[in-house]
Amino acid sequence: MDSDGTKLLCTVIGAGSGISTAVAKRFSTAGYRVALVARSAANVLKLADELQGAGTEAHGFAGDASSESSLRKTFHEIHESLGPTEVLIYNAFALGQANPSELPAEQLAANFQVNVIGALVSAQCVIGDMKAAHRGTILFTGGGLALEPEPSYSSLSVGKAGLRSLTFSLHKELAPFDIHVATVTICGPVQEGTRFNPGQIAEAFFDLHRQPRGKWDREFVYQ
Fold first, then answer.
1. Which of 122, 107, 120, 114 is nearest to 159 (CA)?
2. φ, ψ for residue 61, nearest 5 deg
């Protein structure tokens, strides 16, 4: 909670079932309001309503992670109505199946727009307020493909490697401004009833967020 008694805001880009919903619930239990962003207005508003019904203060916003202008417009709407983002979770990704020898250049570029550029734009939309407040957390959903590429998922492999590099660069740049940047690198399929249960993964996000300054990790490899 902020000094004026207002609940702090966690913004989740790429909202849907699975990790993003689990993360929203976890931060809500810690007293955060949650802004959910997804391309489909109908889907994200439905998700927000479901979470509201379960006790999570959730607000849905339409925003396209593949479009810089759409993301910037959405962040403006969020911050105008709910205030600045304290915690940013970027969970959007684009998945295309093709070996690198057959991967169309335009598909790689389109997927990269979501997998990496959307993450960069989202971070840029919150950094100013975080610098002014001398605090903030930016967390990206990474993947094991960044560590060990899979030819049939060559586009996502490139994207997750790029996202990991972006995370490490931002971590080094922003730590002096009291902004923690990190990635949860998930090395397995997310599925209920397994080690890769969304609820357990959400705990990894929250644990990174609450690390004390001076002991910040830039990556948690979830395997």
1. 114
2. -140, 140
Which is nearest to 52 in space by CA: 62, 60, 64?
60
**Domains of the chain, with CATH numbers?**
9-222 (3.40.50.720)
pLDDT tens readout for residues 120-149:
999 999 999 999 999 999 999 999 999 999
CB hemisphere CA count around 27 (13 angstroms): 31
Which DSSP string corresponds to 69-112? HHHHHHHHHHHHHH---SEEEE-------B-TTT--HHHHHHHH
Per 3-state DSSP, what percentage of the chain is helix, strand, and coil (rounded to 5)? Answer: 50, 20, 35
Q: Please report, for residues 94, 187, 208, the alpha-carbon distance to residue 100 in angstroms, rounded to integers and kept in the order given.
A: 16, 21, 34
CA–CA separation, 213 and 217 (whole Å): 10
pLDDT at 6: 81
Q: Are 145 and 97 in contact (CB under 8 A)?
A: no
